[in-house]
Amino acid sequence: MNIALLLIIVIAVVLAIVGGLNTALNWLLWVALIVGVIALIAFLFRVISGSRS
Fold first, then answer.
1. Per-residue model confidence (pLDDT) at position 4
2. Phi, psi values for residue 20, rounded to 5°
3. Number of Cα atoms under 13 Å in the Cβ half of residue 53
4. Any transmembrane segments, and where (predicted)?
5. In angstroms, rounded to a whole number, what is the distance separating the alpha carbons of residues 38 and 41?
6. What's the pLDDT at 30?
7. Is the torsion defined by CA of 23, 28, 31, 32 positive or negative?
8. Which of the residues 22, 31, 32, 38 has an alpha carbon 20 to 30 A from that of 5?
9. CA 6, CA 12: separation in Å to the nearest integer?
10. What is the CA radius of gyration of the chain?
11. Rounded alpha-carbon distances, angstroms, from residue 27 to 3, 30, 41
């Protein structure tokens, strides 16, 4: 009985960690997309404005 309970607890902890990592990676993906869009806009702004030397 104790082994089954320990196994259930270990599986629950592993699933909680994997779920937390999934949420963190999903959040980081959105942050990376937003930063990428901002960098693309800044790059296009520099290309369109050109060098005024």
1. 86
2. -65, -40
3. 1
4. 26-48
5. 5
6. 94
7. negative
8. 22
9. 10
10. 23
11. 36, 5, 21
